[in-house]
Amino acid sequence: MPTILRIGAYRFFFYSDEGIEPPHVHVRSGSKTAKFWLEPIKLQKGGRFNKRELNQIQRIIKEHQAELLEEWYGYFSKN
User: Fold this and answer.
1) What is residue 10's DSSP assignment?
2) Rounded mean pLDDT, 46-54
3) CB proximity list for 29: less than 8 A, separation 6 or greater
4) Are 53 and 9 in contact (CB under 8 A)?
5) Given Cys at both, which of 35, 67, 70, 78 links 45, Cβ 3.0 to 4.6 Å?
6) Ranges assigned E (strand) in the chain
7) Mean per-residue pLDDT over the chain, rounded
């Protein structure tokens, strides 16, 4: 599971066997996880994050969307 980005307590990653799905990113902080679609940015699964945390994560994803998409397409075009 390649880690793409770490910001504060959040680790942004994807699983290497998920290339058949639309571009997305998983986010983990402690035992909490969430999944966001990247085009357009939309929460798919919120895990145990509260609304404030999910809003903060979504802002981070928006700021780094180009980088996250570049990593997604770069990784899955090789496999």
Assistant:
1) E
2) 95
3) 9, 10, 11, 49, 53
4) no
5) 35
6) 3-7, 10-13, 24-29, 32-38, 41-45
7) 95
Of the candidates 54, 31, 30, the one whose C-alpha atom is nearest the C-alpha of residue 43 is 54
Q: Residue 8 region, left (φ>0) first, then alpha (ψ -120 to 50), else beta?
A: left
The confidence score (pLDDT) of residue 47 equals 87
For residue 79, give both structure tokens: 């496999």
pLDDT value, residue 79: 58
pLDDT of residue 19: 87
Total structural domains within the chain: 1
Q: What is the pLDDT of residues 7-33, one digit of tens each?
A: 999 999 999 999 899 999 999 999 999
Residues in the chain: 79
